[in-house]
Design brief:
alpha/beta, two-stranded antiparallel ribbon, 11% strand, binds adenosine monophosphate
């Protein structure tokens, strides 16, 4: 896997296409398998190999304002996955005034967790939609409790890896004051470090107050270890740094897992 590229710096256009679609990793993994297994009918082997490529199934975890939103955008661009954020799904329910929205609004406003059954029902529905089945998924903000993690596993929703962003409480509190969101797209900006483009109207989320953020951070920390104990897949700790450094770390760890472990393993049958 010597030719793997983990930087997120721009590439020449044609190379960018290949990279975005992970072709260098794929081709290298395919050649490794051909070299090792020397099948009698290589084209037939290639056909089976292509069909065996697993769709990405990832969970991203991190305290509020840990940069999850930005990392998710990058992962969507690089892996083509469907980003499923329970916070966004719940906010949409509230905005549309649905019966779920009415049940969850008060919990969300003060930074408490919404009851497990409501969140699980929403996630299951979203994961069953065709785009998530076809392109794979990136779960963001779920599971948040051990109950949610167990229910997820019991439903056969099993990630290949968990990416855990690590950011201190002080850093989270200082970032949140400037956080702004475009309610139309759910894109996250920062008043000074990442201002929205001209013409984009942004708001401050009602739960981005100092009191609510401290509560959300503490709730996250209390639940995080319990949730992580429920996983048997690899859990990768991603330590801060700039957005690009964190993104490169996440992609590098996932690509390595996906193309070496998931595809090259001698035990994996095509
Ligand atoms: P987030 O956008 O991920 O910070 O989520 C905003 C709010 O939505 C949280 O403070 C909770 O009230 C609620 N929420 C989001 N995901 C979950 C979840 N998995 N379980 C319970 N409540 C959630």
């Amino acid at each position: 896997m010597s030719r793997m590229r983990h930087s997120t710096k721009p590439l020449p256009k044609d190379d960018e296409y290949l990279h975005v679609h992970q072709m260098p990793y794929f081709l290298e993994a395919l050649q490794d398998r051909l070299r090792t297994e020397k099948p009698d009918d290589p084209l037939e082997f290639v056909d089976r190999f292509v069909k065996s490529v697993p769709k990405p199934k990832l969970v991203i975890k991190g305290p509020p304002a840990s940069g999850k939103g930005t990392q998710c955008e990058k992962l969507v661009r690089h892996l083509g996955v469907v980003h499923i954020s329970t916070g966004d799904l719940l906010r949409t329910e509230v905005k549309n005034g649905t019966s779920v929205g009415k049940q969850v609004a008060a919990f969300m406003k003060d930074g408490s967790l919404v009851p497990d059954e409501l969140v699980i029902a929403i996630v299951k529905k979203r994961l069953s939609e065709p785009d998530a089945r076809q392109h794979g998924w990136l779960l963001d903000g779920f599971p948040r409790t051990a109950v949610q993690a167990r229910m997820m596993r019991d439903e056969g929703i099993v990630p290949q890896a968990v990416m855990k962003l690590e950011v201190s409480r002080e850093e989270v509190v200082s970032r949140i004051a400037g956080r702004r969101v475009d309610p139309a797209t759910n894109k996250v900006y920062h008043a000074t470090h990442r201002p929205p483009p001209p013409g984009v109207k942004v708001i401050q989320r009602p739960d981005d107050t100092a009191e609510a953020i401290v509560k959300r951070y503490d709730t996250y920390m209390q639940n995080a270890n319990e949730v992580l104990k429920e996983y048997s897949c690899p859990i990768y700790a991603i330590e801060g740094g700039t957005e690009d450094v964190a993104a490169a770390q996440i992609l590098s760890k996932y690509q390595k897992l996906r193309w070496t472990k998931l595809l090259n393993s001698k035990r994996s049958k095509l």
